[in-house]
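tool_call predict_complex ligand=nickel (II) ion
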Amino acid sequence: MAKLPIIVAPDSRLKQTSAPVGRVDKAVRKLMDDMLETMYGAVGVGLAAPQVGKLKRVIVLDVAREGEEKRPLRLADPEIVAASDEDATFEEGCLSLPQYYAEVVRPRSVTVRYRDYGDTVREITAEGLFGTVLQHEIDHLDGILFVDHISALKRNMILRKLLKAKKARALEEAEA
Ligand code: NI
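tool_result ok
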């Protein structure tokens, strides 16, 4: 396994639509494993392939709490096949928007169909934090970030600050 660099917004690669993998083969499994290692290394609860520069419909997540046994999930070609009418609000963050958080309203529960690590088609129904993380990661596959669900004012403020931080880092690197 290998840790991969995580792309930070604003970046056009985070705004693309990712392509289905169709079948979970050795290369997809390797990507899933590398993504999980990257996610755990960054202390995140979810990661989508476009965040590491791969425009493939692959996500990984683990919503186990600190101290609990790890519960990694690897999903290819995830698709929301049902969503509850009832909504839930969670404070969301993202490894591609470090240090920024906002409350996002989404369906309280969703049913997702996907291909697992062994290329078997499965369905899971998830609610609460689990359901929110699943929806957040699937959004990434369509170029949608959690800030796209909040007001334009707040979104632009966050993206401007991230851009400023990015420019400062680039300048530091150029001077180093
Ligand atoms: Ni994210």
